[in-house]
Amino acid sequence: MVLDWMEGAERPFSKVLVANRGEIACRIIRACKELGLNSVAVHAEDDKDSLFVEMADESILLEGTGLAQTYLNGEQIISIALKNGVHAIHPGFGFLSERSDFANAVNSAGLVWVGPPAQAIDSMGDKMTARRLMRQAGVPVIPGEEINESDPEKELAAIHEASQRIGLPLMIKARAGGGGKGMRMVSEFSGVRGAAQAARREAEAAFGDGRVYIEKMLTSSRHIEIQILADSFSNVIHLGERECSVQRRHQKVLEEAPSPVVSEGLRAQMGAAAVNAAKAVFYEGAGTVEFLVTTHGTFHFLEMNTRIQVEHPITECVTGVDLVVEQFRIAAGLPLNREQTDISINGHSIEVRIYAESPASGFLPATGTLARWQAPEGPGVRVDTGVRQGDEVTPSYDPMLAKLIVHASDRNAAIRRMRRALSEFVILGTVTNVDFLQDLIQHPSFKAGRTSTDFIAEHWGNGWTEQAPSIDVVLAVAVAEASGMQRNKTVSASSESLDPLRHDPSNPFLSIGKRFP
After folding, report:
1. Rounded distance, CA 43 to CA 25, Å?
2. Distance (Å, whole) CA 127 – CA 117
3. Of 254, 279, 281, 513, which has the fewest Cβ atoms less than 10 A away?
4. Which residue, 364, 493, 416, is CA-closest to 508?
């Protein structure tokens, strides 16, 4: 029987395999439940007790060890789908989500691919091809040059010659992939060759493709992306922007929507460019067009992510559009049920990524058992996670534990709400970046909206220093935890702290940045 929301769909389905893990798998499974779809989780042996496996209607073990044999084994995943009556596969983000060969294999097996056409993935996945297509579509691109030499030595020579024409500083970037891998900044011509070799090695290891190209580095720029939705009837709309400038090692740390500096006029221009970019590759589904915006207000195409983004919840908060539900509708062959004029921005939303890592040690990943996990609650607070108390944080997977999202009437209210939510987040058992995030959102420059991709390097260039709690607070934590006392009393905090709640015994667990024994 066809589900009511799928009436008239060209490609109806009722059972979905989620080819992912962690918080995005949980997010997709929840959307399946709301839509009346049966969900199937596939998992590695070390994920058998994970939250996403528990949430799914069915769970099936992936044979083998390591990512290559499990979550990156498209052939095994498709075989499981066919043997278990699955109709559609949702890849989430990462893993196989931007692999055109996997998308083709899913379609060839007679299954519905919840994602864009393989051709669009190929066009945008190859950054050099994407740059050429964007120029043809009238979308402004970052000044740079594509290198078309197959011989490694000739390629290095061509890169060096191109660097003289582009000027410093510049970026050497992998032609394939993303996530900050295969990227090197060059500030002196003498470093071009070494940086190109390093970028090539990293890109080859990460993506199986060591080819690189070069771009002018736009310093003090903002990283702003536009969310788009496109159906198979040539309808494309945008849902406004997300500001993603606060990064470390090219990895996003905090995102917000809307951007504090994007005017209605600039939003319309960037939105139109993003729509043109999607149309240029005959895109279908949810996608994100990323731009760098200069201090002069000009914007340049960076890349397109042909998948759901980690930071999609903030767009959902300010537009009221469920992006995962829209992915399913579009995959079923339904037209968009809204037009551009139906999209409006309501309030302000901020997302921070809670990582198991040590900001005081250069953001090195951390491990441990989550001896205590208590997420914040309350009006306008959302937590997307794939972990719960008792779970093991291992080096096998990405160290992101959760995404903490807040929504409020305006930016100042959202910052206050985020501060409160972070102060209530209780995590024991591993080092996290929660205290660092508190310092970040309360930094005067962030509050003023003065952010750029250099923000962390500019303000914590010599590293971030953790403020150790006093012995009195540590003892208060121990007594409260041992006795099960409710945390309903407050004491004064040190005036030296940016956050007066940080060392409050009513919120003791945040005060400990060490591993729980």
Report:
1. 11
2. 17
3. 279
4. 493
Strand partners, 247: 252
pLDDT tens, per residue, the chain with 517 residues = 789 999 999 999 999 999 999 999 999 999 999 999 999 999 999 999 999 999 999 999 999 999 999 999 999 999 999 999 999 999 999 999 999 999 999 999 999 999 999 999 999 988 889 999 999 999 999 999 988 888 889 999 999 999 999 999 999 999 886 667 899 999 999 999 999 999 999 988 888 888 899 999 998 899 999 999 999 999 999 999 999 999 998 899 999 999 999 999 999 999 999 999 999 999 999 999 999 999 999 999 999 999 999 999 999 999 999 999 999 999 999 999 999 999 999 999 999 999 999 999 999 999 999 999 999 999 999 999 999 999 999 999 999 999 999 999 999 999 999 999 999 999 999 999 999 999 999 999 999 999 999 999 999 999 999 876 655 555 655 655 565 544 443 333 333 445 555 545 445 444 444 343 3
285 - beta bridge partners?
230
Q: Which residues contact 283 (CB under 8 A, 6 or more apart)?
A: 116, 117, 120, 228, 230, 236, 306
Domains, the chain, ordered by start: 4-114 (3.40.50.20), 143-216 (3.30.1490.20), 219-346 (3.30.470.20), 353-468 (3.30.470.20)
